[in-house]
Amino acid sequence: MSSVASNKLDTFPNPAPERDYTVRIRVPEFTCLCPKTGQPDFAELTLEYVPEALCVELKSLKLYVWSFRDKGAFHEDVTNRILTDLVAVMSPRFLRLSADFNVRGGIYTSVVAEHRALGWNPLQPVQLP
User: Fold this and answer.
1) pLDDT tens for each residue of 17-61
2) Which of 2, 20, 95, 124 could bond to 49 as cystine, CB 3.0-4.6 Å?
3) All structural domains of the chain
4) What is this structure's pTM?
5) Annotated active-site positions, please?
6) Distance between CA atoms of 114 and 98, rounded to whole angstroms?
7) Cβ pair 6, 64 in contact under 8 A
8) Do 27 and 45 meet the contact criterion of CB atoms below 8 Å apart?
9) E strand spans, 3-58
10) Which regions of 1-129 does DSSP assign to beta strands (E)?
């Protein structure tokens, strides 16, 4: 069934491995559970990566994200776990995962985790007049 949560991430070949380019994916409806209270935590995830040989397939990413709905996790842990899983299946040149959690008890939490492949250096941005 296509709407069942899964912890499996699928990939496909990078269509332009000869160049650096950035893929940005916004996941506005991430949910997990507070490991202390069991109450739901809501976040917006932003995934930015420069692929090497593989890209993440979006439907599998959606089902993977759904797999956290009933799991208790601290914000820092779940952000780093997702980053680790994505790096494991894609081996990207660069990957940044930003998790902006909604307010809980008057406190907002943002967690940013990054991966950079050994030897990879980003291109310098072009400044146009």
Assistant:
1) 999 999 999 999 999 999 998 999 999 999 999 999 999 999 999
2) 95
3) 11-116 (3.30.1130.10)
4) 0.92
5) 34, 41
6) 9
7) yes
8) yes
9) 11-13, 23-33, 40-50, 54-56
10) 11-13, 23-33, 40-50, 54-56, 94-104, 107-116
